[in-house]
Specification:
By secondary structure, the chain is an alpha/beta fold. It is 37% helix and 13% strand. Strand 1, helix 1 and strand 2 form a beta-alpha-beta unit.
Length: 166
């Protein structure tokens, strides 16, 4: 059973994703694994506070690859230390990078990755090749092939490149 919470999506998005829409507190109480995927806004900052972490199913696993500001980190540490949570995986934490004396690094049931856990040698090589190709295009007075999506910036960039041509 896949359940999800998103106050901004319509019901069809849940159906299309094969998920059942529930309220956040129900999701926390029922889920064996909670994976966080959202942006930080005034309404989401600190949304997983001590109270919400306490509502999570005992022994549940928690994954945050979104933003550290969504979670009350000291409360998460407490929930892991006292065994309420079975474990956690964090790709985001506060501060980044973590200092060597961070209490997070003392928790055995925690996996910490450096906010680019999905980066592989292949993706890094592709990114470097694309950056080099974009640089060559710019020096030649052309727009970058990839990575320049904002239309207003593209327009200004294009004008600047055109005026730099001999």
């Amino acid at each position: 059973r896949v359940i999800a919470y998103d106050p901004f999506q319509d019901a069809a998005a849940f159906v299309d994703a094969g998920a059942e829409r529930v309220e956040l507190d129900e999701l926390l109480a029922a889920s064996d694994v909670v994976s966080l995927h959202m942006t930080v806004t005034a309404g989401t900052r600190g949304m997983l506070d001590a109270g919400r972490l306490d509502r999570m199913k005992r022994g549940a696993l928690f994954v945050n690859t979104a933003r550290a500001a969504l979670v009350d980190q000291p409360a998460l540490i407490d929930a892991l230390r006292d065994g309420r949570l079975g474990g956690a995986a964090l790709d985001v934490m506060e501060p980044e990078p973590l200092p060597d004396d961070s209490p997070l690094l003392e928790i055995e049931r925690l996996i910490v990755t450096p906010h680019h856990a999905g980066t592989t040698a292949r993706t890094r090589a592709r990114t470097l090749r694309q950056a080099a190709a974009n640089l060559v295009r710019e020096v030649g007075g052309e727009l970058p092939e990839v990575g320049l999506c904002n239309p207003a910036v593209r327009e200004r960039f294009g004008s600047r490149c055109a005026s730099a041509r001999p």
